[in-house]
TrEMBL record:
It comes from the Bacteria. GO terms for molecular function: triose-phosphate isomerase activity. The active site is at H91, E161. This is Triosephosphate isomerase. It catalyses: D-glyceraldehyde 3-phosphate = dihydroxyacetone phosphate; L-erythrulose 1-phosphate = D-erythrulose 4-phosphate. Gene3D superfamilies: Aldolase class I. Substrate binds at N9, W10, K11, G167, S207, G228, G229. Belongs to the triosephosphate isomerase family. GO terms for biological process: gluconeogenesis; glyceraldehyde-3-phosphate biosynthetic process; glycerol catabolic process; glycolytic process. Keywords: Cytoplasm, Gluconeogenesis, Glycolysis, Isomerase. The gene is tpiA.
Length: 244
């Protein structure tokens, strides 16, 4: 049985005051029967850990190397040292803004696993790719290359995030979400066998809000959500957690 996961990505938003939202969330869901993860900007990680209660704290990216001359980057071990226990990798904003490809995402994931971080590996098609009916080919290729052989149900989560749904208010219909999630599950089972393939959690991400969360969570092979904008305020994120 896969435990549900509600994950929040604060992106480059938030400051010390935003940690009050985290503390409120931690209080409200102190007895949660689902897993919660918040990924604040790196500057807030260690302070976030001290007010997060049962909520895991994660980074939004890490470097593939353990240390070295990489100005501005953070290694997986440094995230761990700051108190993070997870990291988002391959978000479309990293892939687009920093030209990251799936090979780099896989190397980062390998480093994150070695540092004992839960990796949330993001995949997603553009609108042009969906309209050209290439969604499953794109997702299949990203999945094959981005996920390292070290993946298990304990250290890896996959987030399906259609690029055109992120921050736009547009959401695929539930059949479209189900089609991609079932496809990812089948591919994972084929590559890793039924044990690992069925234990990796699959999140949907892209304009998840309190109003649409329950219908998305009812879709087959949706084990939770990766939430951007609606994770910044406890009043928005909390009902999403409760819908799981
Ligand atoms: C995201 O950036 O991962 C995301 C899903 O954003 P939003 O929920 O704001 O669409």
């Amino acid at each position: 049985m896969r435990r549900k996961l509600a994950a929040g990505n604060w992106k480059m938003n938030g400051d010390s005051a935003t940690l009050d939202e985290l503390a409120t969330l931690a209080q409200r869901h102190a007895e949660a029967s689902v897993d919660l993860l918040i990924c604040p900007p790196a500057t807030l990680i260690s302070r976030a850990v001290s007010c997060a209660g049962p909520i895991r704290i994660g980074g939004q990216d890490c470097h593939a190397a353990p240390s070295g001359a990489h100005t501005g980057d953070i290694s997986a071990a440094q995230l761990r040292d700051a108190g993070a226990t997870a990291v988002i990798l391959g978000h479309s904003e990293r892939r687009e803004d920093h030209d990251e490809d799936s090979d780099q995402v896989r190397e980062k994931a390998r480093a994150a696993h070695a540092a004992d971080l839960l990796t949330v590996i993001c995949l997603g098609e553009s609108l042009a790719q969906r309209e050209a009916q290439n969604t499953l080919d794109i997702i299949g290729a990203q999945l094959a290359l981005s996920v390292p052989d070290s993946a298990t149900g304990e250290n890896t989560v996959i987030a399906y995030e259609p690029i055109w749904a992120i921050g736009t208010g547009l959401v695929p219909d539930t059949d479209q979400i189900g089609e991609v999630h079932d496809f990812i599950r089948a591919r994972l089972e084929r590559r890793f066998g039924a044990g690992v393939g069925r234990s990796v959690r699959l999140l949907y991400g892209g304009s998840v809000k309190p109003e649409n969360a329950a219908s998305i969570f009812a879709v087959s092979n949706v084990d939770g959500a990766l939430v951007g904008g609606a994770s910044l305020k406890a009043a928005d994120f909390s009902p999403i957690v409760s819908a799981l």
